[in-house]
Design goal:
This protein has one domain: Metallo-dependent phosphatases (Purple Acid Phosphatase, chain A, domain 2, 4-Layer Sandwich), CATH 3.60.21.10. The protein is 21% helix and 22% strand. It is built from 6 helices and 13 strands. The model has no long low-confidence stretch (mean pLDDT 94). The structure holds fe (ii) ion (2 copies). The site of one fe (ii) ion (FE2) has 6 residues, from loops.
Length: 274
């Protein structure tokens, strides 16, 4: 009835660190947490930028970490990925005609349509959804029973977030996407790419953007087009169907976070209201 979202693992060739953090070690902590506490969930969905430079060795290293997961894992493309080496290492990942990694997943009452917004132009980080990918989406939306919750996952958000450096590399085919979605608005959209947890609504569609697993983007509203990176704990999100609602929970990964019960024995320090 529920699944885990992670995003932007940015694995690199040869292991080691990227921006002074180690993508494999960071993900290892997340895999351990999922195996420990969430192995009853249906699957993990990684919303793109699996590798930083898209090399085969980066995908081999990613596979080694994900092989430890006790639940299935589905992988999506981001602007840093490369389909050919990815396909070699993950030959069983579902793909549509034309080799785009677009597929439908089921979790309880949710039908999740995963899109592939990788624009295969080296060095260009914008997202694209061509006619073939949008046609696939349109057909899959029509196939989704009306009593199912419709969730759409894509790496690039299709709208401005008020973060100029990230807005410059959003999905370019926003209007064409909206044309498809206006026939049936999804109940929820999930994104990666921005490396920051952000939620809100686009044209009345609720969305969740998942924090980057290795490095993060600082929350800065400066009109500067160079991306302001920062270091924060990564987190996992869990998307769950509760009653008639879809709920997105997040939980930090890494470090030592205490769990403690509420009650008189854990009384907070005294304070008085003046
Ligand atoms: Fe990323
Ligand atoms: Fe990205």
């Amino acid at each position: 009835m529920s699944f885990v979202q992670i995003s932007d693992t940015h694995f690199i060739q040869g292991g080691g660190e990227l921006y002074e953090t180690n993508p494999a070690l960071r993900l290892r902590d997340g895999v351990a947490m999922i195996n420990e506490d969430y192995k009853s969930l249906d699957f993990v969905l990684a919303t793109g930028d699996l590798a930083h430079y898209g090399e085969k060795d980066a995908y081999i290293r990613l596979k080694a970490e994900l092989d430890e997961l006790e639940i299935p894992c589905y992988l999506m493309m981001g602007n840093h990925d490369s389909r050919t080496p990815f396909r070699e290492i993950f030959p069983d990942m579902p793909a549509m005609e034309g080799g785009f990694y677009q597929y439908a997943l089921e979790s309880g009452n949710m039908r999740i349509l995963c899109l592939d917004s990788l624009n295969d132009v080296p060095g260009d980080h914008i997202g694209r959804l061509c006619e073939a990918r949008l046609r696939w989406l349109d057909e899959e939306i029509r196939k989704t029973p009306l009593d199912k919750k419709l969730v759409i996952a894509n790496h690039h958000p299709p709208f401005d977030l008020g973060l100029p450096a990230m807005d410059a590399i959003k999905l370019r085919d926003s209007e064409a996407l909206w044309e498809v979605l206006s026939n049936r608005k999804p109940d929820l959209m999930l994104f990666g790419h921005v490396h920051r947890p952000i939620s809100g609504a686009w044209k009345g569609i609720p969305f969740h953007i998942q924090r980057g697993f290795n490095h993060q983007v600082a929350l800065s509203f400066e009109e500067d087009l160079s991306i302001p990176f920062c270091e924060e704990y990564p987190d996992i999100a869990i998307v769950r169907n509760v009653g008639d609602s879809l709920i997105v929970y997040t939980r930090s990964v890494g470090g030592e976070f205490r769990h403690f019960p509420s009650g008189a024995e854990n009384k907070q320090p005294e304070f008085s209201i003046p």
